[in-house]
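User: Predict CARDB domain-containing protein's structure from this.
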Amino acid sequence: MPSKDIGTGNFVIGNTKLRPRVPAAVAAPVTFHRAQSLSFWMQVYNLGIGDNKRNDATIEYQIVDLASNKQVLNAQESAAKLNPNADQLTLEKTMPLASLQPGRYQVTIKVSDGVSKQQIAESAPFNVQD
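Assistant:
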């Protein structure tokens, strides 16, 4: 993005312009090919700030194979690594799909706020084809 356009307009988060992949039908998951990457973004607001002027949130990323109900990815990171003094975060991750077999999957992003003791999770199904 040109610097004058950062944070402006639809589908712009920070300095990244998104191109949403919209499913063909309302309830249908989006389909990707194994040669592609899955990118996901999430903005989190109103994180609690502790007495030390820092947030204490943990972000967990999970991908589950829906056919076997087996986790194929489970990763965590601390909000302190991303922006420790902010009450909001923009999560931005990209994952190559080459290691996934063709099938149905679900990605879940879970944010646990250690200060306010609240938790939020968002999920989305997707398909992988050869």
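The radius of gyration is 16 Å.
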